[in-house]
Amino acid sequence: MPSPTLIDDAKAITGELVTLRRAIHTEPELGLHTPKTRDKVRMALAHLPLEWREGPSTTGLVATLRGHGGDGRSVLLRGDMDALPMPEETGLDFASVVPGVMHACGHDAHTAMLAGAAELLCKRADSLKGEVRFMFQPGEEGHHGARFMLEDGLLGDGDHPLPDAAFALHVFPNAPHGMIGGRAGPLLAAADQFCITVNGKGGHASIPHETMDPVPVACEIVTALQAMVTRRFSVFDPVVLTVARIESGTTFNVIPDKAEIEGTMRSLSTANRERLKEHIQLVAAGISGAHGLTVDIEIVEGFPVTVCNERAVDFGERVTREIFGEEAFLRLDDPIMGAEDFAYVLEKVPGAMFFLGVSHEGEDWTQCCGIHSTKMMLDESVMPNGSALLAGLAVSFLEHGFD
Ligand SMILES: [Zn+2]
After folding, report:
1. 240 CA to middle of ligand 1, Å?
2. pLDDT tens-digit readout, 44-59
3. Is the pLDDT score of 222 beyond 90?
4. For residue 96, how far is its CA from the centre of ligand 1 (angstroms)?
5. What is the average per-residue pLDDT within 161-167?
6. What's the average model confidence in pLDDT over 315-331?
7. CATH topology of domain 6-186+305-400
8. How far is the CA of 170 from the centre of ligand 1 (A)?
9. Cβ atoms within 10 A of the Cβ of 360, count?
10. Disulfide-capable partner of 214 in 4, 73, 259, 267 (CB 3.0 to 4.6 Å)?
11. Which of 180, 188, 171 is nearest to 369 (CA)?
């Protein structure tokens, strides 16, 4: 059972959480190298008895807290540190001072809440029955930061095995204030990017039969890809394919040499992720071949499916209810087709990601600007809940595993 004072302890450090979150928010950093953010975390936690590991591929940090006794379980808690390449339009007095860079996905709050959890757990180190690893990772926004940290052996290597469980939180401004949500199985999608180049032969627009026009072929491919989604994939294991960019030609009377089709494909199972890659090839090559043209297809792999372990979600629901009451946990009916690189951790370690509603109290949360909006804001008074939940998950897991 988590200590009943966890939430009180967390509320008592609200000032520290807000200060750290705002400092990170003001100076957002992109990608795998977030040295200022790393330094802020290290400074905020310098007084705690933590062992630090970092490098070499990223500025990611893993801080380890060793408790005493128990049967030596270990649990990982994760917060991401990077921002997005987009302008901020919140008008906040601690808004980003870096032009074109904004913490619009709440990773500033994730980092601060994880630092808060470290504070709460260090206070309880004497009664902790195992080891807690705090993973502060950069490069979540499409840069595979978690994968690099795994490959660097920061989460576990030869003489330092991977943890027995892993948990992470993600804030959502357009969800009820303080609500904690989760689901067993796929929570977020695998997301891969594709670019199809239709290779033709250009010429005068008045004599198309002497050219190999890539434009109608590209159009056929776009519609055929949508038919492929509904005809070749089961509705019970859904996929999303969106063509977001079509580009060809320069003017009205010239048939171009090439056409480009670019988009994203999302899936909720590894099998469908592979099938999408196969079928997009079949459709694009088949249609272009029928017209005597060729295609080149480039696929840029994004993150795998984020799959939450069933026992870990049941466990998280119990811990949430113990700390915040019966009403606090919401089972999500459906996954979200966004993607998340905590997926890499959950491929190797059983665990779960939970969502935390950070709309302002009393506000109509359906009207809040969501994540990745230039006006995205969150209610900082929910941050202690995030720290308390992360700490509670660690305390309970070290005590009795997922049971
Ligand atoms: Zn995010």
Report:
1. 20
2. 999 999 999 998 999 9
3. yes
4. 17
5. 96
6. 96
7. Aminopeptidase (3.40.630)
8. 7
9. 16
10. 259
11. 171
Residue 396: what residue type? S
Q: Per 3-state DSSP, what percentage of the chain is helix, strand, and coil (rounded to 5)?
A: 35, 25, 40
Residue 363's pLDDT band (cuts 50, 70, 90): confident
Instruction: Tell me the CA–centroid distance for residue 342 and ligand 1, in Å.
Output: 10
Tell me the CA–centroid distance for residue 159 and ligand 1, in Å: 32
Cα 359 to middle of ligand 1, angstroms: 16
Q: What pLDDT is attached to residue 71?
A: 62
Tally of residues, the chain:
403
Q: Does 4 score more than 60 pLDDT?
A: no
pLDDT-based confidence at 15, cuts 50/70/90?
very high
**Domain 190-300, second-level architecture:** 2-Layer Sandwich (3.30)
Helix (H, G, I), strand (E, B) or coil at 73: strand
- Which residues lie below 8 Å from residue 143, measured CB to CB, with a gap of 6+? 31, 32, 82, 341
The confidence score (pLDDT) of residue 67 equals 87
Ligand 1 centroid vs 171 CA: distance in angstroms? 8
Which residues touch 199 (CB under 8 Å, ≥6 apart)?
Answer: 214, 257, 258, 288, 293, 294, 295, 296
Round the average pLDDT of the chain to a whole number and report it.
95
Cα 302 to Cα 287: distance, rounded to the nearest angstrom: 26
Q: Is 293 helix (H, G, I), strand (E, B) or coil?
A: coil
CA of 370 to the centre of ligand 1 (A): 11
Residue type at 256? P
Locate the domains of the chain by residue range: 6-186+305-400, 190-300
**pTM of the shown model:** 0.93
Q: What separation in Å is there between the alpha carbon of 141 and the centre of ligand 1?
A: 7
pLDDT value at 3 more than 80: no
Q: Quickly state the pLDDT bin for 254 (edges 50, 70, 90).
A: very high
| C-alpha of residue 387 to centroid of ligand 1, in Å | 17
Taking the C-alpha atoms of residue 313 and residue 315, their distance in angstroms, rounded to an integer, is 5
Q: Which long-range contacts (CB under 8 A, 24 or more apart) does 289-296 make?
A: 291/212, 291/216, 291/217, 292/212, 293/198, 293/199, 293/200, 293/212, 293/214, 293/217, 294/198, 294/199, 295/196, 295/197, 295/198, 295/199, 295/221, 296/196, 296/197, 296/199
Q: Are 267 and 239 in contact (CB under 8 A)?
A: yes
Q: What pLDDT, on a 0 to 100 scale, did the predictor assign at position 5?
A: 86
pLDDT at position 158 is: 72
